[in-house]
Amino acid sequence: MDQLAAMRAFAGVVETGSFTRAADRLDMPKATVTKLVQQLEARLGTRLLNRTTRRVGVTPDGAAYYERANTLLNDLDELDSSMASARATPRGRLRVDVSTALALLVIIPALASFHARFPDIALDLGVSDRPVDLIAESVDCVIRGGDLLDPTLVARRIAALDMVTCATPAYVAEHGPPAHPTDLESTHRGINYFSPRTGRSFPFTFERDGEAVEVRPRHMVSVNDSTAYVAAALAGLGIAQLPAFMARPHIADGSLVRVLTDWAVEGIDVHVVYPPNRHLSSRVRVFVDWIAELFATSRLLQPGPLVG
Fold it and tell me: What region holds the HTH lysR-type domain (predicted)?
């Protein structure tokens, strides 16, 4: 038995005084209304209505049940109405976690447009490269690049970031440009990035004419934060593999130059990730749609030649 439907059928009969009129109001067959009321009485173990050929009356138990049921049904209708309103004008606090570089270079500069569109959403932006536990830390969604480590979460791919290999002009002048990726393991040094979650270092990857090469460069410094990684590259501490959007302004102003340009580097997928919930809040839904639109249109994230 659909208890909610049965309660609505019973309330309809009480309010109209007739199974026929209740059926018309609820837009269902009279036989269905009758069956629902009978099932409700059987479930409760009491008679709610007195039926005669001429009229329908409410029993004392029926009157008491109607008073409580009517309050509940009105509350449910009000809740449905408020949720519909919230979908039209999302409001409330939204907790989002994002990597440092994406926050500083892409998201924060565009947040004024998000606020203009959704002025009643207060955004709590957690900015770091460290992994977060969405459930334990009450985070609504995270934006991260790289492999997805938790298959139980829902992920929406919003971008694919190009990667470039680069160093400072001073480093290249001192050491010469590397001729092959394996030079990073012998005559050159790189800057090492390790996972904030596992401590595992990420290798440099290259591909050319079907040949794939993975190297783990010699290094003098390791970091686990993207902005620190750029700072280490700009300090001339070695060769770095950077997302193109992070390297682009430094290549444009000459503080970094590309090396191993005849070797391609595998890109990084960016996802917005949130807990599985088929009743996703309107705040999360509109933010996910906005962030996907932002990443699709951001000039900084678009593929194109790197000048410098």
Answer: 1-59
Q: What is the CATH number of domain 3-88?
A: 1.10.10.10
CATH 3.40.190.10 fits 163-266, yes or no: yes
Residue 103 DSSP label:
I
pTM reported for the whole predicted model:
0.64
Fold match, 92-158+269-301 / 163-266: yes
Q: From CA 95, how far away is CA 125, in angstroms rounded?
A: 6
Q: Using an 8 Å Cβ cutoff, are 272 and 156 in contact?
A: yes
CA atoms of 143 and 272, how far apart (whole Å): 4
pLDDT digits over 236-271, tens only?
999 999 999 999 999 999 999 999 999 999 888 898
Give 170-222 pLDDT, tens digit per residue: 999 999 999 999 999 999 999 999 887 777 888 999 999 888 999 999 998 99
Short-list 120, 123, 121, 94, CA closest to 108 = 123
Q: Hey, what CATH topology would domain 92-158+269-301 get?
A: D-Maltodextrin-Binding Protein; domain 2 (3.40.190)
User: In the chain, how many H helices and how many E strands?
Assistant: 10, 14
